[in-house]
Amino acid sequence: MSLFDLFKKKTTEIEPFNLDWLEVDMHSHLIPGIDDGSKTTEESLELIGRLSSYGLRKIITTPHIMSEYYRNTPEIIKMGLEDLKKSVKNAGIDIEIEAAAEYYLDEIFLEKVKAGEEILTFGKNYILVETGFINRPQMLLETLFQLEMSGYTPIFAHPERYQYLLADKKLLEDLIDRRLLFQVNLLSLTGFYSKPVKDFAERLIERGVVKFFGTDCHNPRYLDMLETLPKAKNYESYKQMDLKNRSL
Q1: Cβ(28)–Cβ(216) below 8 Å
Q2: Per the confidence metrics, is the pTM higher than 0.90?
Q3: For residue 146, with 0-12 CB atoms within 10 Å meaning exposed, 13-18 middle and 19 or more buried, which class applies?
Q4: How far apart, in whole angstroms, are the C-alpha atoms of residue 83 and residue 80?
Q5: 185 Cβ partners below 8 Å, 6+ apart?
């Protein structure tokens, strides 16, 4: 071995980032112009193209439905989906796209469920639900119970981001005991939101209660950060988790 070989800088081949192990992303905001996600069809196509390049076979995009901010309806979302699917096909992007919604839990939503109004679901009658980040909704448990009694299976979107849940250990245990399905944002595992959020996400995964991952993609910045995920210390173990995404 020559002196040059001895001190030559070793190069390591880095595996390209991919999500083929996830198969299906079930949380994103890609229908343009109807919530705080993609603003234009062009931006949606850029995001969907990148997600497709990661090896996903399906995207289930989930626009917000929030009574005070994003007053989307099933009709608005379905129309937006059809337009988006046409654009994706014309752009030659090979990926399946469906739509549901991310429902904000408030009194108005609870009344819709009780009244039997149309609710957008996916998979095995799954419904994606969220709350505010700071304060626990007073009707949280009641709404989850009503959804289950109505034949739905609620999925709790990004619980790692709810400060009230981090602070209320009894509530967390109550939700785990009732076998509520948890969906963690992959971005949380990169530290995108904060270190406490990252730590909480990791603890939920260690507890074995996380059944879904989602990108929660809103714009290109989300995907830029998502591509750093392989640097996460437990990345390889995340790929081996028994996730329900693959059954969608």
Answers
A1: yes
A2: yes
A3: middle
A4: 5
A5: 27, 158, 160, 161, 192, 193, 201, 213, 214, 215, 216
Q: Which residues contact 165 (CB under 8 A, 6 or more apart)?
A: 136, 159, 171, 172, 175
pLDDT digits (tens, 9 = 90+) for 133-189: 999 999 999 999 999 999 999 999 999 999 999 999 999 999 999 999 999 999 999
Q: How many residues does the chain have?
A: 248
Cβ contact 204:210 at 8 Å: yes
Assigned CATH topology for domain 18-247: TIM Barrel (3.20.20)
By the 8 A CB rule, do 77 and 121 touch? no
As given in the structure block, the two tokens for residue 51 are: 């997600």
d(CA 241, CA 211): 8
